[in-house]
Amino acid sequence: MEVVIPGPATCNTSISTPSRRRCVMVTSDIQEIRVCTNRSCRRQGSMQTLETLTALAPPNVAVKSCGCLSRCGNGPNLVALPAGTLVGHCGTRARAAEVLVTVCGGAFDSDAANKSLEALALRSKAEMERNNNNFSQAELFLSQAIELTPIGGIHITYKDRSVARLALGNHSGALEDAAQALALNPLYPEAYICQGDAFLAMSQFDSAHNSYLTALQIDPSIRRSKSFKARIANLEKLTAVKKP
Which H or E run includes 87? Predict the structure, then answer.
């Protein structure tokens, strides 16, 4: 299926040109988006594009960096796979959101793109509030982000809200949010860790162990994480105390 991303003015072509550079032909069933981070595209803002797409992509769409796509004059460039659709002039957060909504949704939708960006901004605000230990405000921002139903990244938002709710002592709410994140992305190790943290806070040690073990099976590299090691050590300590 062909889709056209229109620019500010009416556009009836899928050919990317300097005067109509916001038009692009795309296909459905996108599985991966690769963003050029080579020198020329990087200077034009491709790292911001990569960050935005990574934060907003649905769980079934992988976002990765790549080398030169041989269109330096049209940068920043990205390619949507497996169709191999090249998209140029993708150097702003707004443009990245437009492209993502179109390739994932099958049609241009400026409202969906704007809501996705607004949800991302709320997630950023929530992160700052969490860093300041203001978990109530963080929970509020994350709830607002979820209500906007962005194109993707909702599993991350649920995970973040799980962290905030656990810090507030809302164990059942934290567990529910972790489950929501896993319903959206069953292979999300951070959500399993949040689930384990909630079970641990509720003294459900066997369930906590199973959640942590599942996270480790999905991503064995977390074994080296200091925070993960601390979780396991704490679990073992609490389990030993519980034993008669």
Answer: strand 85-87
pTM, 2 dp? 0.84
Burial 129-141 (b: 16+ CB within 10 A, else e): bbeeebbeebbbb
| 169 contacts: CB under 8 Å, gap ≥ 6 | none
Q: What DSSP letter does each residue of 139-161 carry, written as one string? A: HHHHHHHHHT--SS-HHHHHHHH
Cα of first residue to Cα of last residue in the chain, in angstroms, is: 64
Q: Give the CATH H-level superfamily of domain 3-108.
A: Glutaredoxin (3.40.30.10)
* pLDDT tens digit sequence for 197-234: 999 999 999 999 999 999 999 999 999 999 999 999 99
Q: How many CA atoms lie within 13 A of 122 on its CB side?
A: 28
For 35, the token pair is 């963003």
Question: Where do the domains of the chain lie?
Answer: 3-108, 118-242
Record: fold of 118-242? 1.25.40
Domain pair 3-108 / 118-242, same fold: no
